[in-house]
Amino acid sequence: MALNEAQKNRFFQDGYIAIKNLITPAELSTLRQHYEDLALGNVPNFPRRHLSVRDVRELTDMVNARQTQALETPTPHGRRHNRRGTQVYPKGEEAYEAQRRMSVKDPLDAVVKMNVPSRYDPVFDSFVRHPKIVDIIADLMGPNIKLYYDQVFAKPPYDRANRYHQDSVFWSFFASNFQITCQILLDDSTLENGCIRFSPGSHNFGLIDWEHLPYILTEDVLEKEVAVPLKAGDATFHHSLTLHCSGPNTTPCRRRGWSIHYVSAETRYIGTPKETGHIKNLGCLVGPEPTNGWPLIRGREFPACV
Ligand SMILES: O=C(O)CCC(=O)C(=O)O
Q1: Is the CB of residue 168 below 6 angstroms from any atom belonging to ligand 1?
Q2: Can you give the residue ranges of every domain in the chain?
Q3: CA of 196 to the centre of ligand 1 (A)
Q4: What does the alpha-carbon distance between residue 118 and residue 195 come to, in Å, rounded to a whole number?
């Protein structure tokens, strides 16, 4: 057992736990080096479509803004949050609009997100299978574990806040709403550079769609929000129903968090044809179809499941 009873209880009570020093400084520096190789195009088979870079996203934002102008003006939502349409996000990004539009000197600072590094890099792959992570997942989820997906939230200098969400809202093709994300910090995360923030106990609210989100994020719920600043090499583990967000990066330094999303191998896949097409494009399958298509990390597979 990797977690003690108190840690397990805390995960199921709050919907998340933080683990200090999950990886060693040497492991951290290897991961950073391999991240750089992927990001800078030194890994020839890594498709560029798996990288979101700032310029492209800013353009996309501008197009979206034109289409949803009525929703774009933020209004206060509690003391420390704003609301844009039905989206609730930490305050503070507005002050950094000009810095966000400045061109970057270091190409790594253009990266907003990297998708599925574990599919293309043996070091990332070895970590998604590493007992020090998988033992914790097994303690919380059971012995049969698959990898759904992994992604690096790179949060470049002056990047925007990440809105409040439940991961399960994006994953309706799974018949269960219990997946677990392990996020390993590749840089120190602080209140200033947009550390992750959780709404403790919110995994007990059930699945909440976007339309209803602002009505669950009431003043009393938002007041209980817990920001979790961590050192590089530390990690958080969170339930896929736990409401979470991250603040804007108000600093000139990036804040990378590598999120590894695990799913129980006993989870039925119920995706529509459209979702199945989307999943095939994501590049996270090892089989031809989503049913029995995701990489087995530990234990065994089940019929009609992932
Ligand atoms: O790092 C972030 O900003 C957000 C992370 C997140 O939403 C996740 O890992 O599910």
Answers
A1: no
A2: 5-298
A3: 7
A4: 23
